Amino acid sequence: MKFFQHQAQARRRTLKLLSLMALAVASLTALSSLGLGWLWRELNQESDQPKVLNWPLVAVVAALIVLVVLLGSWYKTWRLRAGGKVIAEHLGGRLINGAARNSDEQRLLNIVEEMALASGTTMPAVYVLPEEAINAFAAGLDPQQAVLGVTRGALARLERDELQGMVAHEFSHIHNGDMRLNTRLLAVIHGLLLFSLAGVLVLRQAEREHLASDRHRFIWQIVFAVLGLALLILGSLGTLLGNLIKAAIGRQREFLADASAVQFTRNPQGLSGALKKIGGCTAGSRLKAFNAAQYSHMYFHQGVQSRLDRLFATHPPLAERIRRLDPQWDGRYPGDSR
């Protein structure tokens, strides 16, 4: 596996997708501000006057939209400030640093220490998740806050080199700054979601104007209805597009983490072996925790399933990841064994 070549390819594609995200936000801002400027022009200019947009108003609306997105993004980032510890606890994780209960947990701690040295990263807090599936995750806004979680199923089913490949993959996310990138993407999408919420509020105002007895308010009912519907549609489209781009970025970062893991371990067979065992495991990589879907982008492999996996999957297909690591793979998965 040419891991440096794969790393460069994944980084280039990530940059293109981030540019597309910025373009989506800019387009949403432009459409909203120009639309409001047009509506203001139609309502406030006499029929015999030339139709001219109020550009200062358009600029003010655009600035307000950017401010709303920034405030929404800041709020989401503030909510996630507690780091990976909270996420590990939400998933039912148990901290094992310095308190390994058995040889499997001690083996995990030894591997984590090795990968911390190999990647030049601070030793994270290590958690075991009470799940039979084969999966893992890394979370936290920065390496100092990072935690690493591994499922009980992974500890029971994976050989040492396979577990090392999985842990190296998660260290790659820490090393490459993927946790901070994911947090920023979530924050931007949360900011876009505020458009939809604003649209709902404006539509409710239109309903109140409709119930008012003053017939002169009819025009404002139309204004509020058009404005609210426009905000709702634009916000929904922006959120949908943002989630699609976030998922595409996530898939590229998984390829990058696979390549970086091979760089750390110099053993692609270990990582590919872990992925093959997911394919042959009855539980697969699916997590049963109540909050599992909320953190789907953080897992070693797809932790939840959806009918829209092809569009919103945060991880590449299992077979594609394996073939990048092992081009000679025959397509068969090993049987489920402990």
From TrEMBL:
Ranges for domain Peptidase M48: 104-326
Keyword NAD on entry: no
Entry's localization field: Cell membrane
Domain of life according to the entry: Bacteria
TM annotation in the entry: 20-40, 52-75, 185-206, 218-245
Cofactors (names): Zn(2+)
Keyword Protein transport among UniProt keywords: no
Keywords per UniProt: Cell membrane, Hydrolase, Membrane, Metal-binding, Metalloprotease, Protease, Transmembrane, Transmembrane helix, Zinc
Coiled-coil regions listed: none
Pfam families: Peptidase_M48
Membership in a protein family: Belongs to the peptidase M48 family.
Record-given protein name: M48 family metalloprotease
Organism: Pseudomonas piscis
